[in-house]
Design brief:
Elements (H helix, E strand, L loop, with lengths): L1 H11 L1 H4 L30 H10 L6 E2 L19 H12 L2 H5 L7 E3 L2 E17 L2 E14 L2 H47 L3 H31 L7 E4 H11 L1 H6 L3 E4 L5 E4 L1 H17 L8 E9 L2 E8 L29 H11 L4 E5 L5 E6 L9
Parallel strand pairs: 1-4, 6-8
Antiparallel strand pairs: 2-3, 3-4, 5-7, 8-9, 9-11, 10-11
Helix pairs in contact: 1-3, 6-7, 7-11, 8-10, 10-11
């Protein structure tokens, strides 16, 4: 049988597919809990192919590793280590023959040595079928790749955590704020039934008006939420665009609202050129203009000013108004989905969330400089053409 296995191993070319192969009896490295729990140690006592095929013949799953004497953990395709430090340490000692090396591997299966750590992650599965007389053997070999836990890797993990947190806040805000018009609709549907029974024509009309307004509000919230989801993507490839062109296009799109509200608009000269998706930045400025107009308050001479300045190594763009202003405690909150400065504010409270998403997609940041009753300045940074940086 051994000769048949050896011949089959040569046919399969197992030695060329991997470096270290092996198997372990029950409990030698970890306590087996399920049949799918798989671990391995490299073996130098037998030819590679013989070890693999005999492992399969014995019904022991095996794992192929790139790096001999590594402890292997894979939770996706069935390789899993349970938190049993004693068992793990004992098994690893048998692999390393060195207690100090064994100590470097924690109970979670991660190896750390000299400030360098990684996870062994399976990348490819190879199936092999063996037949020798009446005996049939099948099994799996996992090719395991080393992933360095570098600074870039850790940064990616942190970014994913931030995105997950943002997604949770987004889901909560949407579900919470869409309930308000639904509650209004349900309440007035009940009142409508009563008024219809009493044949109160005027009240029926009033009930219908409230229902219609709530439904319209919900429609606007859904549209703005969809727009927010789109704002996180740059639709057109970024190009060098004079920022003044972006300002001019935004003012064209808001010209009717500006004129009807008697807004005085001023624009700085000599704006730098930015590298951006022009359409998205126009959308951002349109939202900023709308926001300024909506929160002018009782200002008798409303003004909006587009400008920029150099702060250190950054070019800071801004849109300033002389409206009602924002208290310092609300400077961060105004960028939250559906947040409104005043209880009965205009709009849906999505505009600044959209602006923030657009600016961040372009690699910039955005913040508020304002005091209540002293107007509001929305500042943001954007990538500027290198020769124009000052």
């Amino acid at each position: 049988m051994r000769s048949g296995l050896e011949q089959r191993a040569r046919e399969l070319g197992v030695q060329h597919a991997c470096r270290f192969l092996g198997y372990i009896p029950d409990g030698e490295l970890v306590n087996y809990y399920k049949a799918c729990d798989v671990v391995c140690i490299p073996s130098r006592n037998e030819p590679f192919g013989i070890v693999v095929l005999e492992a399969w013949a014995a019904g022991k799953p095996i794992v192929v590793t790139h790096n001999g004497f590594d402890f292997v953990r894979h939770e996706v395709n069935g390789l899993k280590v349970y938190d049993n430090p004693g068992s793990i340490a004992w098994g690893i000692k048998s692999v390393f023959c060195d207690l100090e090396k064994a100590k470097r591997i924690g109970a979670n299966g991660r190896k750390t040595a000299e400030g360098f750590s990684w996870d062994n992650i399976a990348r490819m599965t190879m199936s092999v079928y063996v037949e020798d007389g009446e005996n049939r053997f099948s099994g799996r070999a996992e090719e395991v790749k080393e992933m360095e836990e570098s600074g870039e890797y850790r940064a990616l993990i942190e970014e994913l955590k931030a995105k997950n947190a943002e997604l949770e806040r987004f889901a909560y805000a949407v579900s919470h704020d869409l309930k308000s018009p639904l509650i209004t609709i349900q309440s007035f549907v009940d009142m409508l039934r009563e008024d219809l029974e009493l044949k109160e024509a005027e009240k029926v009309e009033s009930d219908l008006r409230y229902i219609e307004n709530a439904a319209t509000r919900m429609g606007h919230q859904l549209e703005d939420t969809l727009e927010l989801s789109r704002s996180g993507r740059v639709v057109h490839p970024p190009k060098d665009v004079p920022f003044v062109e972006i300002v001019q296009e935004a003012l064209e799109q808001t010209s009717v609202k500006i004129k009807s509200n008697n807004i005085e608009v001023a624009v700085a000269e000599d704006f730098p050129t930015v590298h951006a998706d022009k359409a998205k930045l126009v959308e951002a400025l349109v939202n900023l203009v709308d926001n300024s107009i909506n929160y002018m308050g009782e200002q008798s001479h409303p003004k909006i000013y587009f400008g920029y300045c150099i702060r250190g190594n950054e070019t800071v763009f801004f849109v300033r108004d002389n409206g009602m202003g924002i208290e310092p405690g609300q400077h961060e909150k105004v960028f939250d989905l559906f947040y409104q400065v005043t209880k009965h504010g205009k709009g849906t409270g999505v505009g600044l969330a959209i602006v923030k998403r657009i600016i961040e997609v372009h690699g910039g940041r955005i913040w508020i400089e304002s005091k209540k009753g002293k107007g509001c300045t929305v500042c943001f940074t954007l990538p500027v053409r290198s020769e124009e940086k000052r």
